[in-house]
Amino acid sequence: MSGAGGKGAAAGNRFLARAAAGVRELAPYVPGKPLAELEREYGVTDTLKLASNENPLGPSPAGAAAARAAAADLALYPDGAAFDLKAAIAAHHGVDPAMVTVGNGSNELLVLLAEAFLEPGTAAVYAQFSFAVYALAVQATGADAIVVPARPAGSQQPWGHDAAALGAAVTPATRLVFVANPNNPTGTYLNDGELRALLDAIPRDVIVVVDEAYAEYVTAPDYPDTLPWLAAFPNLVIARTFSKIHGLAALRAGYAISHPDVADLLNRVRQPFNVNSVAQAAAIAALADAEHVARSRQVNARGLRQLTEGLQALGWSVPPSVGNFVLADTGRPALPVYEALLRRGIIVRPLGNYGLPNHLRITVGLPEQNARLLAAVRALQEGTVP
Ligand SMILES: *Cc1c(COP(=O)(O)O)cnc(C)c1O
Q1: Where in the chain is the domain with CATH 3.90.1150.10?
Q2: Could you write out the DSSP letters of every residue in 115-126?
Q3: Which of 107, 163, 211, 236 could form a disulfide with 194 if both were Cys (CB 3.0 to 4.6 A apart)?
Q4: 180 with 130: CB under 8 angstroms?
Q5: Rounded to the nearest whole angstrom, what is the distance from the C-alpha of residue 10 to the centroid of ligand 1?
Q6: Ligand 1 within 6 A of 135 CB?
Q7: Quick check: CB of 107 below 6 Å from ligand 1?
Q8: By the 8 A CB rule, do 173 and 121 touch?
């Protein structure tokens, strides 16, 4: 991959200098290692992926059945307006369908928001150690990225968003503020009072994107319910996904809830068939399966405790997380630890590209999967792993 790019540059491919300025400097998103790649590269078979915050229970059985049924009819274009899916989302949240925009994962919605509101000379604000896609979406537009320092390591929400500092970073050039709540990879969150104060501090012509990819997992009583705030804040955009608790990451479906005027702008830049028909059908069924969501939430809450306490007992620093993953400080460069775990067939996420070289992000799995991870780390500590 780097070879191809390098060769192009050496051969003086003149179009490279002609790429859009924001794109030329862009480094692609680094996803969690796929299981098939681990099996290919390391020759291991009994593999476990705890790297991409997927639901270890899988999708709702009803969602999977709906996907299979929809896959029987692949010749027709999907409903470009996603009428039934938008209606289901609107009914689920008690909002008008005109406030719903669907995307190819919520990732696409983040990119559409950047495309709709950013251009060179404007700026977007987001926090240090926040979800990596914000930086990519902003940079590609040529707008300035204002990265606000995170809270200190020793604070209540270690490396979490500093709400007051985010608000203070907004200038007349600012068009967008990205807030991940909870944040990935830190597992931290802004509580009701903090997020509300941030919205109050930001002018109403600056879009505030509250990315709630893990909202369904949060059990903290002071976690904000942002939907009722839409009435007072026409600049608020709530982003949700079917990839996390709904277990449909493979199908790529997410949605935004916003003022209808924001939805209208997003619909101008979105591709006409951005969410495929299999994803639409599965998402509708998944949204209706409250039982699967409740069970996923319960299994996660227990696993979160198991992983946090287990890793702490092994000497790693693991601040409390409200998501379906933990941020673990291994106390030394984490890459060799990551590689040692790969040799044992376990994929976790190293965070060097987030500026956290001693940390790993580990997704909560099923009890036996968490136990296997903990046993592997214990073996590592005891030096029984090469
Ligand atoms: C996983 C994730 C998303 C988006 O996932 P999609 O699969 O694109 O819907 C968005 N925001 C955060 C913070 C995430 O961790």
Answers
A1: 28-57+291-382
A2: HHH--TT-EEEE
A3: 163
A4: yes
A5: 36
A6: no
A7: yes
A8: yes
- CA dist 363 and 356 (Å) reads 17
Residues belonging to the chain: 386
**Nearest atom, ligand 1, residue 254 CA:** 9
Ligand 1 within 6 A of CB of 105: yes
Q: What is the pLDDT of residues 19-45, one digit of tens each?
A: 998 898 888 888 888 898 988 999 898
Mean pLDDT of the chain: 95
Question: Of 80, 90, 162, 174, nearest to 125 (Cα)?
Answer: 174
The architecture (CATH level 2) of 28-57+291-382 comes to Alpha-Beta Complex (3.90)
Kindly give the number of the ligand 1 atom that is closest to the alpha carbon of 52: 1
Give the pLDDT confidence of 206-251 residue by residue, as tens digits: 999 999 999 999 999 999 999 999 999 999 999 999 999 999 999 9
Residue 26 CB coordination number (10 Å)? 14
Mutate to test the pocket of ligand 1, among 89, 106, 321 (most ligand atoms within 8 A of CB): 106
Average the pLDDT over 79-97 and give the result.
98
For the domain covering 61-288, report its CATH number.
3.40.640.10
For ligand 1, whether the C-beta of 373 sits within 6 Å is no
pTM: 0.94
Cβ(235) to ligand 1 under 6 A?
A: no
pLDDT digits over 305-348, tens only?
A: 999 999 999 999 999 999 999 999 999 999 999 999 999 999 99
Q: How far apart are CA 34 and CA 41, in angstroms?
A: 11
